[in-house]
Design goal:
- There is one protein chain.
- By secondary structure, the protein is an alpha/beta fold.
- The protein is built from 14 helices and 15 strands.
- Helices cover 38% and strands 21% of the residues.
- The strands form 3 sheets. The protein has a 7-stranded mixed beta sheet with strand order 3-2-1-4-13-14-15, with helices on one face.
- Helix 7 packs parallel to helix 8 and helix 12 packs across helix 13.
- It is globular, with a radius of gyration of 21 Å.
Length: 401
Amino acid sequence: MKLENVYMLLPGRKVGFGSIEIEGGKIATIKAETAKVNLNLQPQPRLVLPGLVNCHGHTPMTLTRGLGGGLPLQRWLEEAIFPVEAKMTPADVKAGAVWGIAEMLAGGTTKVVDMYDFPAETETALAEAGMKGHVCRVGLWFVPGRLDECIAFTREHPNAHICVHSEYLTNEEFCRGLAVANNAELKRPIHVHVSETEKEHRECLERHGKTPIAYLADTGLLDQGGFAAHCVYCTDEDFKIMAEKKVVLVHNPTSNMKLGSGFARIPRALELGVSVALGTDGCASNDNLDMFEEMHLASLIHKGLAKDPTVLTPWDIIEMATFGNEIKVGAPADLCVVDLDRLHLTPCLDIPNLVVHSMHASDVVQTIIDGKVVYDHGTFPTIDMAKAKADFLSAVKRIGL
């Protein structure tokens, strides 16, 4: 497979123009010259980005898109989300996952770090669609036998992460038990919600005399690194722990604003050595899975808060959104192809700026994973969309929405 006459975002924060040849699921050759500014003069201008990576998602929550809008986090969970989720079957979760995967593929996302119940169903949906991802059995202290389930599921699924939902939905016995098993045997990264609200952060201090990050570190749960979502109220000391433990801060700007949670201190986290990625969160607290929207908001929020337009450059944001993916020889061919011949993308004078401040998921025309086209101009070669829609609408109806 060969992509010819394309612009491309290359390592070293360079924009090139040329061709990318793919063999055996990997990038075999790249022929590129420095791109000129008259980009739209090409007959069919296209841009190839590294595949986008959604580092914090609840993919099956497409079933609850927009549910509980206008409620703060705790009321949103307890009044709107938990009662509906209690009705969901594995088949419902599979249907929601397939729908969410299709939405992400159509927007150039090639990988998701997912957290939801019935994770085997999401894992199967990912495999069938050809999308990359990590799932986990969600750690909750009040579910009988859940600690053993978490350990067993992770052991049986080599690509799974360990998970506790949060400090406030687990207890110390649960956290230490999972940490012991993980550090002795499983050796997997963690996926966890951290300091999403001021209330959560304050109550953890009252319970343990420590911030959520410090508490989780003390239990041993951060020893294998991982992904901490939100981190809105993290302190400098928290950021130093995260940098030391190689815990990635996953920034979720849309969700944090919709739920009124606040703004994570991303520039400070980066200054203290924390790796930062982007995530959409679930469709009930975001309403879409558009990673371009997350890029746009992440850029604007921090410029506005700092009153400084130089804060978080477009390249900084792009690297958060393509976390770990690069267009280089030998790398997996996980790519997002965008049509530049759009009203809102013309003239194309500064590609990184255009990616962050002008592009939408709907501008994506192809998504390629391991060299295989999984989305192509509105079609899904790996997903039966008629069946997916029927299953999805049936699930929405069954759970009473």
